[in-house]
Amino acid sequence: MPTVTAALLVLALTATSQEVLDGAPPSAWRPLDDERTLYLELPAGRVVIELAPQFAPRHVANVKALARGRYWDGLVILRAQDNYVVQWGDPDDETPGKARPLGTAEAKLPAEFTRAAAGLPFTRLPDTDGWAPEVGFSDGFAVGREGAAGAAWLAHCYGLVGAGRDNPPDSSNGASLYVVIGQSPRHLDRNITTVGRVVQGMELLSVMARGPAPMGFYEQPGLGTAIKAVRVAADVPAAERTRLELFRTDGAAWDALVETRRNRREGWYQRPAGHADLCGLAVPVRPTPAVAPAPAR
């Protein structure tokens, strides 16, 4: 009898992406870690963000400290630039006497644009990329890499969350965050600290009215969407958490899924591409399946 791994690899040569997902074992999925998950609560609903401390530990720690200090509660989305980003933070952060206190968060951090590739799990894609010598996925995050002995960094794909900065490289501290809502601006790779990615709720950000001012800033008060709260998921009552699972980006199931995206076999397609772009490979997300109750004895 063929193993699950062998069956998936055979399936990848003939199946659609949905068929691979349907045939993947439960072990091909992983739950979100509540301590590494952020909830951005908007009037229209919840945006779920998976944080990436393995790439920017100091910034992620600061983001969590700011959330726990309720830094963003009551602020607004400051900017929605078409085909680029949505951004939020304190509009008075540089005004003495008006800026919100940072609480226990650090006011200044070193730039965390890249990290050492050594020791980082990495599943390489077979296709070339114009922005990095190697590209692939690490724990669900799209990553660029300069070989196993070089540097690695998060790629600016749709849904990426980064820390806004001024001209000095070390001028970000996580208090101003943005999410990519347009065509992947890969020219930003290795030029800014990135802290995570949206795994659910992108539709709440991508539909926001574009700001009329240059770079999408809202010129008049009241135009930006209000932020109800930002919370670390671990601090939210268990019954109110969003339970999600993400497809693992290592192993045979992921390899099979990538192959179905490189060569689409759905009936609509007439010519397989034989190629997949790093930012075109969305990692599947699903609600955590309900656990059946144990049978009564």
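(ticket continues) Second input and output from the same batch:
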Amino acid sequence: MKLKNEIEIIEKKSKFYGYLLECKTEQEIKEYLTELHKQHKKATHICWACRLREPFCEKAVDDGEPSGTAGRPILSVLQKKDEKDVCVVVVRYFGGIKLGAGGLIRIYAKVTAELFK
């Protein structure tokens, strides 16, 4: 597993940390998530999505965000870019202002897209 890129975006006082990983197995992803949970103990959400080539696997996890507003937008960007053997993790620290479903979908997709620039 290799960390390819990381970014920070602030949206309405919430902080979003994005991590782009090159990985081959679900086990690598689990190990990295364990490390991120230790590193970001006070994070509100740690959402992620992955696409693996062999065996083919796609997963999206919202981690407490409303269903379909975090993991799915991340996965959607990975699919549109036809990225494989990658995982994107977005860590959110809630800033006190609700973004709504549309706002969450936009920011999680934006963080993911920015990781590929």
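Agent notes: The beta strands are 2-11, 14-22, 45-52, 57-61, 86-93. The chain has a mean pLDDT of 97. Closing as not reproducible unless the customer responds.
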